[in-house]
Amino acid sequence: MIKFRHSFSSGKKIPSFQLLCLVYLIFLTIVTSHQEAENVYQKRDYYTLSNTDIKTLVELDPPQWDSVTDGHLGKLLIPRASGSENNTLVQNYISSVFTNLGWHEEKTPFRGTTPIGEIDFTNLIYTYDPDAPRKIILAAHFDSKWFPDFPANQFIGATDSAAPVAMILHLAEFLTPLLNNRKERILSGLGILKNDFDEEEIAETTIQIVLFDGEEAFKDWTATDSIYGARHLAELWSKTYLKSTHPLNKNKKRKFEPEPTILNTIDHLILLDLLGNKHSMIYSYFRETDWLHSKLIKIDQNLKNQNLIEIEKDENEWFSKIKLRGGIGDDHLPFLHRGVSILHIISNPFPSVWHTLGDDSTILSLPALRRWNRILRIFTCEYLGLTPNLIISTTTTTTNRLQSKKTIDELVSLKKIILTDLYDIILFGWTDDSNLRIVDDNK
Ligand SMILES: [Zn+2]
């Protein structure tokens, strides 16, 4: 692993032409190998929407909100600490949204020991197609941080994480008709493979929403006072074995391989946190999802190029191409530690109002929320091969397609790659954002 260092000091001579050529060549090699490195970790097809399709998807926006408190967000912007009545109200609201959409609901209630006593927690899990053998997960936490005294106990947590939850609810509403239509089309035998794009792989992948309870620490963030819901769920899933008819079991090559669990069915877990204010800076933290982070950059750039998002003053760039390794403590950790592939979409540095009463509706930005909604919409449509016309256009092309067809048993090899990243974590530990390491990819 190489750390970036300043290699030119002010006292140096001007480099010769030959030297400049050499530096340029090295730069090209680094850029090329970087791109190749991302492709190595891409384990599935990724459909790229045409500009026309992207424009159509953006025009399918829900009625324009006049205020950040319109829509789902208005229902979530209340203090909702784990174990409180408001927490239950929010759970019920979220449940009603997904029930209306017809998604499968699973709740995992449990009692946890916290520094302030026993607390009841409930994770909420919604799956479009519970029978699908593999899935992509979008996740956020719906609890807000508990403070004992007034006025601190009125902490709302607008960016932390009411806004990310609202984005996910809007996304699910948006995707449902497209998913319904694709399901009908595939069931009727129309087009499994279109235009060199592997719809079979796509058809066996569903989307799951996981909304964690108990992300926040009740006192100080420690291994035991934080991410209660995520720790519970990762542990539960690591012990929930798949049916013998599941493709992962059928594809098992050796008798003594570990029994696959629910965790093995997760292609990627994408965690959103601390979003919705004007400023965001999103880094990539994990080698195996650098390619997904690059997709986000491309989508944002494309939306900008087509004038489909409103860029606020001084907010041009939301995504950094610099890779940060080490990561930030959050709900993904118990899954990462068990080999799940993670994309962590979190603002770094944290919003200036983090864990203060200022993290309320006034910090949220309508243009930023719309921008996130559109980015997530395009991203999930491309990941899941969904198009606005519901039939994949014959004129669009697939980019970044791998030469060979990828199947579900490759999830197992993906898991091995992730464990390599874990080596870094064991060596350097989990840190907050003040202690992140900048490294290059070319190990
Ligand atoms: Zn928080």
UniProtKB/TrEMBL annotation:
Domain Peptidase M28: from-to ranges: 123-377
Molecular function (Gene Ontology), one example: glutaminyl-peptide cyclotransferase activity
Assigned keywords, A-Z: Acyltransferase, Hydrolase, Metal-binding, Protease, Signal, Transferase, Zinc
GO biological process, one term: proteolysis
Entry coiled-coil feature ranges: none
The protein's Enzyme Commission number: 3.4.-.-
Signal peptide from the UniProt entry: 1-33
Protein family according to the UniProt entry: Belongs to the peptidase M28 family.
Protein name (record): Peptide hydrolase
Organism: Kwoniella pini CBS 10737
Lineage per the UniProt record: Eukaryota, Fungi, Dikarya, Basidiomycota, Agaricomycotina
